[in-house]
């Protein structure tokens, strides 16, 4: 029969073994659940990364679609402007010449004065034709300024600044000493449309009477800063439901790796900074 000390030692060994066994089971259970947790987190991370990738692909696709739509829109504007200018403009010019010829024939013919009302009508028709021709040219120019394609973005910005000042009476000072700008047609169009939208916003909302436009090339980027002395755009206007025009400006620049920054100060005006890489794509 084992002695009491042997029995105590045996019980102690069994207790330690049981404790080790329970500890092993506990550690194994913890490691198992930890492994499952890590696996679950990794799966969630993969799902999140895949979702982010899909969202990025969707954004890239939407941005590409937006760029394509803008290109198509500009091409259609160009085609319509050309048709209006060439076809309708020529027809109106021919009509004006026919009116002038008819008036000349009436004046040279010997009549008893009964043709005077007709001559007066022809003079009125000729003046109306002149007004219509000017309207056609204005509409065609607004659709697609020829100066943008023929002379480039610098001259187009200068022209738009002058036209804006003459239309609105808002002084628009242009400060620029940049030489010829190496920029492709799509980028030039984006810059020009952003500038137009900025001036339109000033005329509609800023209550300004003066604008300063600074144009320069810095670090291979075309920089245009448009600052007005109006009431200053607010944070709510920058992010509100009616800020789609501002969003469109940013998107136009972002498509070509550029950006549009807008900052307003109450009572001191709004500053719009456009930055776009230059150089052929």
Can you offer a commentary on this structure?
This protein is α+β, with helices and mostly antiparallel strands and 281 residues long. The chain folds into two domains: 1-144; 152-277, Heat Shock Protein 90 (2-Layer Sandwich). Helix content is 69%, strand content 14%. The protein has helices at 4-108, 116-143, 146-150, 153-168, 185-206, 235-239, 244-255, and strands spanning 171-176, 210-218, 221-228, 259-265, 269-277. It has a five-stranded mixed sheet with strand order 1-2-3-5-4, with helices on one face. α1 runs antiparallel to α2 (116-143) and α4 (153-168) runs parallel beside α5 (185-206). The mean pLDDT is 79.
Annotation keywords:
281 residues; alpha+beta; Heat Shock Protein 90; 2 domains; five-stranded mixed β-sheet; elongated
Strand content: 5-15%
Oligomer: single chain
Number of extended strands: 5
Helical run tally: 7
Fraction of residues in helices? 55-70%
Unreliable runs? none
Shape: elongated
Sequence of strands across the biggest β-sheet = 1-2-3-5-4
Task: Describe the SSE topology.
Blueprint: H1 4-108, H2 116-143, H3 146-150, H4 153-168, E1 171-176, H5 185-206, E2 210-218, E3 221-228, H6 235-239, H7 244-255, E4 259-265, E5 269-277
Parallel strand pairs: 1-2
Antiparallel strand pairs: 2-3, 3-5, 4-5
Helix pairs in contact: 1-2, 4-5, 5-7
